[in-house]
Amino acid sequence: MKRLIGLGLVVLSVVSLLSCGGGGGGGAAPVCTTCDNVAGNWSVTEVDTGNNGCSGSQTVTYAVVQSGCGITASSGGISRSGTICNKTLNWSGTYPESPGTVTITSMSVTVSGTTTSTMSGTSSWVYSEPGGFSCSGTTAINGTKL
Question: Between 141 and 9, whose confidence is greater?
Fold first, then answer.
């Protein structure tokens, strides 16, 4: 069975909302001199490359609401949180993805354009199901603000 692990199912997961600026243990957090405005509707194409059949592609529209450096992206009745620091969106975390679990191991998407109108980047992830099936891979992310 072909599995599709994309931005909508992987990257915009419900995770701890990261703060813009400041630092915690384990190293300094990036200093956010700006938090680019990414609010609005985005068309995002996700191309997954993974092992064990976890590959595929999809295009999803997200509605993004922003408050300071915090953002919430919604699609298909599901909302997930993250942050933007300077021009980079970052997420990590683990969440359920029926019938298993997805763990985002790294993600970096950069927004650009004169009005923050495009985004591109990658994420790395691991998917596992009860019974032992697992796969891992990367997602290439490209989006355009509508």
Answer: 141
Which residues, 6 or more positions from 100, have their beta carbon under 8 angstroms from its beta carbon? 127, 128, 129, 130, 133, 134
CB-based contact 62:12 (threshold 8 Å): yes
Range of the domain at 84: 32-145
Write the CATH number for 46: 2.40.128
The count of structural domains within the chain is: 1
What pLDDT is attached to residue 63?
A: 94
92: pLDDT confidence band, cut at 50, 70 and 90?
Answer: low
Structure tokens at 85: 């620091």
136 in a structural domain:
yes
